[in-house]
């Protein structure tokens, strides 16, 4: 069973890294939105294409109420942080119990 435990540790590590990278992409997107970026820049296009599907889903449920501030990146970052604390730690704990 130690092989399955090692597999779960590896999966938890990869998930942790992927969530961290996506969190930094969301942060970069938020910082870029403060300035007037060139929409034809490949980096700006990458940031928008990778974050907009998630941010759009969050924006649908946020009551903006005319305040003019997009709070969806904060909600997404908090959700990523929750997943890192809950999902990754749970996978590692299960792996150590089986290993």
Strand fraction: under 5%
Compute the average pLDDT: 92
The SSE string, one letter per element, is: HHH
Alpha carbon gyration radius: 17 Å
State the low-pLDDT regions, or none. none
Number of strands: 0
Number of helices: 3
Beginning-to-end CA distance, first to last residue? 6 Å
Q: Helix amount, in percent?
A: over 70%
Outline the biggest β-sheet. Answer: none
Helix vs. strand class = mainly alpha
Number of domains: 1
Shape: elongated
Write a short abstract of this structure.
The chain is mostly helical. Helix content is 80%, strand content 0%.
Could you please describe the fold and organization of this structure?
- The chain has helices at 2-33, 42-61, 72-98.
- With 99 residues, the chain is mainly alpha-helical.
- It has one domain (2-98).
- The longest helix is centred in the N-terminal third of the chain and has 32 residues, at 2-33.
- Helix 1 packs across helix 2, helix 1 (2-33) packs antiparallel against helix 3 and helix 2 (42-61) packs across helix 3 (72-98).
- The model has no long low-confidence stretch (mean pLDDT 92).
